[in-house]
């Protein structure tokens, strides 16, 4: 009997937790474990620990499978990482940092950097092939107009996977900033202005308030370079 200690960490951002069921399968170079339930409740920023019992030593753990399924309501889950400690004390780290939505299974490789030529096991070669095919399917390009740069082949950002979309937290911050700036410009008379500017000083009065503000990692600069 080989016992593996597993720790599963949830991201600390808003809504990262879930009340859906999460289970895990360990895949080693000598075999794989049975699917083991981790928990039915994950809270943001928290960790869950469990023991996975195997009939034999699995050898070096090369990847894990995270299984998510729901009984009733869908509740997306953001997995930060998974750590597996083998019976001999070896620690394996599996950085995930992605959303799991719906009924799904996600495979995560061990965190050490590897090139294609380093994949000796067939299961790793197959995992790399499927991952490449999934990325090629997700990132398809189209021509928006003749002479324009190509853009992503979707009609709306909501067609994209949550892991590709702009983060929810930054999107909320950005929306809040736009509301604040819109209110500021409205109160300053910019949005309702029907006449020309009287001077550069008058323009500075309005635009200098937004110059150099940092919103969620994006620097918004005043569109007037001489201010």
TrEMBL record:
Organism, as annotated: Sylvietta virens (Green crombec)
Every Lipoxygenase domain range: 114-227
Site positions for Essential for stabilizing binding to COTL1: 99
Protein name: LOXE3 isomerase
Gene3D superfamilies listed in its UniProt record: Lipoxygenase-1, Domain 5, PLAT/LH2 domain
SMART domains with a match to the protein in the record: LH2
Native organism taxonomy: Eukaryota, Metazoa, Chordata, Craniata, Vertebrata
Family of this protein: Belongs to the lipoxygenase family.
GO biological process, any: lipid oxidation
């Amino acid at each position: 009997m080989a016992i593996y200690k597993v720790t599963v960490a949830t991201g600390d951002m808003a809504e990262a937790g879930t009340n859906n069921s999460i289970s895990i399968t360990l895949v080693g170079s000598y075999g794989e474990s049975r699917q083991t339930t981790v928990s039915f409740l994950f809270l943001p920023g928290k960790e869950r620990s469990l023991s996975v019992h195997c009939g034999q030593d699995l050898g070096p753990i090369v990847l894990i499978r995270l299984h998510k399924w729901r009984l009733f309501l869908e509740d997306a889950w953001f997995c930060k990482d998974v750590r597996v400690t083998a019976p001999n004390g070896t620690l394996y780290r599996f950085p995930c940092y992605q959303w799991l939505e719906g009924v799904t299974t996600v495979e995560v490789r061990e965190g050490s950097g590897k090139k294609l030529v380093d994949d000796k096991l067939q299961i790793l070669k197959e995992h790399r092939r499927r991952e490449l095919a999934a990325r090629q399917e997700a990132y398809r390009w189209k021509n928006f107009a003749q002479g324009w740069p190509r853009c992503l082949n979707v009609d709306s950002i909501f067609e994209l996977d949550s892991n590709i979309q702009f983060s929810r937290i930054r999107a909320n911050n950005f929306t809040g900033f736009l509301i604040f700036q819109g209110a500021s410009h409205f109160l300053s008379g910019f949005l309702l202005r029907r006449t020309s500017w009287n001077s550069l000083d008058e323009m500075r009065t309005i635009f200098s308030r937004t110059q150099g503000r940092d919103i969620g990692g994006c620097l918004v600069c005043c569109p007037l370079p001489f201010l």
